[in-house]
Amino acid sequence: MKTVKRVAYVERGKGKGNFSCFAPEPIGTFGLAGYGKTAREAMADIRLTVQEYKEMEAGEGREFPDVDFDFRLDVGSFFDYYPIDVTAFAKYIGMNASVLRQYIASLREPRESQVMKIREGIKLFASDLAHGLPLEQPAV
């Protein structure tokens, strides 16, 4: 069975529990989208969409390919997917926590420079974790 790759964007809409996931490039005439109350649910739903298309096409004697998604998260879906303390992260990257919360809740759209600051902060955090700090036992 053939596998195709697709970029899929996960976005948080305004309000609680309003996430969507979509691949801008269709497969044939089939659009790929998913929705959920969390980023993970929206990602699972787009995978379910693929399964439903596979079943539908199999019923017609045709094949629908497997899809390997390359997920891209917006600020709100990133902090939903990874339950990081927003206040601590904002302090870590030198950003106002209240402003970051507004970006996360889709109440305010970040400028590109702010998105870059968040991206660089995530890279720095990942690098710090990759270098590993020894965690062996509680402090005495």
Poorly predicted regions are none
Percent helix range:
40-55%
How many angstroms does the end-to-end distance come to? 57 Å
Order of helices and strands: EEEHEHHHH
Biggest sheet record: 4 strands, mixed
Strand content: 15-25%
| Strand-pairing-aware structural class | alpha+beta
Number of beta-strand segments: 4
Radius of gyration, in angstroms, nearest whole number: 19 Å
How many helical elements? Answer: 5
Q: Order of strands in the sheet with the most strands?
A: 3-2-1-4
Q: How confident overall, as mean pLDDT?
A: 92
Global shape: elongated
Structure description:
With 140 residues, the protein is α+β, with helices and mostly antiparallel strands. The chain contains five helices and four strands. It has helices at residues 39-59, 75-81, 86-93, 97-104, 112-131; strands at residues 3-12, 19-27, 30-36, 66-73. Strands 3-2-1-4 form a four-stranded mixed beta sheet. The termini are far apart.
Outline of the structure:
The chain has 5 helices and 4 strands. It is of the alpha+beta class.
Defining key terms:
single chain; 140 residues; 5 helices; 24% strand
Layout of helices and strands, plus pairs?
Elements: E1 3-12, E2 19-27, E3 30-36, H1 39-59, E4 66-73, H2 75-81, H3 86-93, H4 97-104, H5 112-131
Parallel strand pairs: 1-4
Antiparallel strand pairs: 1-2, 2-3
Helix pairs in contact: 3-4
